[in-house]
């Protein structure tokens, strides 16, 4: 048993840095959050200043400790969770970044990825990394820095530079440059890491021109990476995981078949597939999940590009809502969507459709269609898209799914949760603590230092806030799903100029 009273989770996200102190029951004792600057140098480019990331993360951690007057000896360990794939390159001696961090959303390397695909490398990349080649992942971002920042390529060749995802960058700084490390979940998002052999892959390093000397050591997510003395006493850094994997862990998704879905701006579904790395034929990603011990544990991952963002669209562009939670009142004001379907394919459709040209579509409008119907249909679209992912996962993993654990801002919408349960014919479990991302990092760190004995003890903390059980008759459900599939076809057909011809 660690001596400290609390575990600190550092939750370094895309728009803000947060720190949460948890107690043994997994309850939030104190929290602090700070937004930081988003830098958009050109259309489609997104950067962060690595010093902003570091300073805001330090600031909120101290603030969260101060709020409850926590001393370093009160902290049993620090766990880190972070925005994934975002790439930082810094000088090995001075620790100074050579340029801004290139954020996961940044599309500047899309052409590079197209060239790599044209050269026939896609299958090799997928076979090794479980990823579908894309500019999101770190590999092409590192390559861009080495090619475009003056002198960076030569300095990297001379062994003078270090690369890291945000967890590595924080660990490096927390340990005063003594530790250059990452965890397997973050490594699995770089597109340089062989998720089967558990090592950086020479062929991929060569393809992207990345010298091995730049790369961090890779450890399990539950691991004592080092200690920090920056808070006035020694505190172990005892866990790290990428945000989505951390959320699965925070939901106690330790076993094969456990699934969580996050209803945030976008949607992220992760299913633990245990020791099996399942290859997807429907465009899901295979990735490494956070494991409660040293063994490797895999997950299937699918994402919905537009989830809560569709509600924001109703609020900001359609001006139909004052705020997102208000959507629920409108949904329950009508008995159904009146035959209306909204397919929010604002920027194409992801798994299992993968059509980047599809566009947002509304079908089924009649003279009687009201604002309530349109809002309800939009909220329902979050559930339909989630259901599509769920079906794909069930089929590919061949695992029965008994329950879906949910988190993220939009899971607060009771109507949405009940509708999800109905059309997916599944029990939905919404935990009391929906800060599952931070909680996952805390659990990893706490398990490392013996603050929690084992996963059974952690499981006792998982408290259900509310359960939603399916009630809808099978025929009704089938009818709704059939309508959704037809609506999706319309969204795809609309964008396909060749098929449509000129009328
Ligand atoms: P992120 O972490 O991606 O920024 P959050 O998990 O904070 O997102 O969720 C915010 C999203 O959830 C927003 O898109 C918002 O529109 C949506 N949202 C929040 N509350 C509700 C609600 N009660 N009903 C529907 N959508 C909601």
The number of helical runs is: 17
Q: What's the β-strand tally?
A: 23
Give the fraction of residues assigned to helices. Answer: 25-40%
Give the CA-based shape.
globular
As a percent range, the share of strand residues is 15-25%
Question: Which residues form runs of ≥5 with pLDDT under 50?
Answer: none
Largest sheet: 7 strands, mixed
Summing up helix and strand content along with how strands pair, one would put the structural category as alpha+beta
Side by side, the strands of the main sheet go 17-18-16-15-21-22-23
| Radius of gyration, in angstroms, nearest whole number | 23 Å
Mean pLDDT across every amino acid position: 94
Q: Would you mind describing this structure in some detail?
A:
- With 503 residues, the chain is α+β, with helices and mostly antiparallel strands.
- The protein contains 17 helices and 23 strands.
- A seven-stranded mixed beta sheet has the order 17-18-16-15-21-22-23. Strands 3-2-1-5-14-13 form a six-stranded mixed beta sheet, with helices on both faces. Strands 4-7 form a two-stranded antiparallel ribbon.
- α12 packs across α13.
- The longest helix has 27 residues, at 371-397.
- It is globular.
- Adenosine-5'-diphosphate (ADP) binds at residues 264-265, 308-309, 311-312, 324-325, 327-328, 408-410, 412-413.
- The site of adenosine-5'-diphosphate has 15 residues, from α10 and α11.
